[in-house]
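Possible race condition, two jobs.
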Amino acid sequence: MTTRRMMNKLPEDVVIYILFRLPVKSLLRFKCTSKAWYTLILSDTFVKLHHNHATATKEEFILFIRTFREEPDLWKNVASFIYCDDNNDHNNLFPDLDLSHLTSSYCSIFGQLIGPCHGLIALSDSIIIIILNPSTRKYVVLPPSPFGCPKGYHRSIEGIGFGFDSIVNDYKVVRLSDVYWDPPTDYPGPREPKVDIYDLSIDSWRELSEVEFPSIYYLPCSEMYYKEAVHWFSHIDMDVMILCFDIITEIFRTMKIPGDCTFLEIPRYGLAILNECLTLISYPDPMCSDEPIEELIYIWIMKEYGESESWIKKYTIKPLPIESPLAIWKDHLLLLQSISGIILFSWDLNSNEVKEFELHGHLECMRAVIYKESLTTIPRVGEHSPQVQQF
């Protein structure tokens, strides 16, 4: 007796109970067995049940992006989809994916991964923006923002964000940029901040009016989506702050970093999620510190989100030869890029064990984001909307 015939003999609620515990790969195969299963598996209710179950489990995956030089003036971005077994040995979930849309004539040092948001992740090299569901292997390339700048001015993209507005039930992409007067021989200025927002449900860009935000302090591992807000680092009166943009209200706010961090000699910072808390990683700047491998790494967690007084120093890590942190996997594996810039390795926060991954890339161009499986579909409004594609 086939699996479908066996399942058909069960009550519908039992079938749903069984199905939403299955991995996405199996569900995508099962939805082709009948119209009833196709409708069920792709229904909003089932997608939410499956997402909630996946969120409650500890099964986490990594989307890892790295850059290679193909020719003297051509760079290629490659995505790897990784999972870890019970022995913490990593394996590829899918074959590596060449991201041709992000392949360009410059090195994607400013490339970012933002998310996950209901299983969707935004990839960007600051010019091209892609929305991707790594579980279903569906993606869409967003149309470019129509907002440029007048002749004689320069528009600099400072940050990209992505999140979900639960009030209007829509995904949004936010683009922060600065417009400068750009004469050929003079100092550019003054700065005029701009905020563009793309609403996926209506396939349209819009520009917020009269919005101010402080200068973005760009760092790897710094654009974080958490608690329906996107987070960056910023400079305010020579101090480093966490800048937040609320996806629902479309309002900026700031949070202070731990006070001790400001006394470290030439520190850099990263953002991550640890034990479901916003987490700050402070580490030595490999470009400025005389002996970066002699400096300690500190991990802080914010126990009460939004309360700067609730920062707690969780871990102090011995000096490591790193270029930057990338993410925290399974609440105990800190993923790091080596100071040579070409190796991904992990530091176990529980055992202090170091493990090297057989994954390599160009200096400063490694990015990683942690995600859980999801059936979430990428919205597409009509025939003129960007085409959702399969990889």
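Job #2 (started ~2 s after job #1):
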Amino acid sequence: MNDMSRMERREILRVKRDALMQDHRDLDEAIAALEEKGTADPFTIRRLKKQKLALKDRISALEDQMTPDIIA
């Protein structure tokens, strides 16, 4: 893979990661708002927390793809 396509791929991964990070922050704020209200269904909060965790896993996977392999 040439340097240009590697840079393009890294940029695409960065944009995807940034979008997922924004979704993660949005979910965090939504969960906090629901918990602050105290009227939220516990199953809804649990579902949102699972979605947030799944986003965190996807973010980590993208960051792993963005980091070059280094032979120790």
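The CA atoms of residues 47 and 53 lie 10 Å apart.
Logs attached separately.
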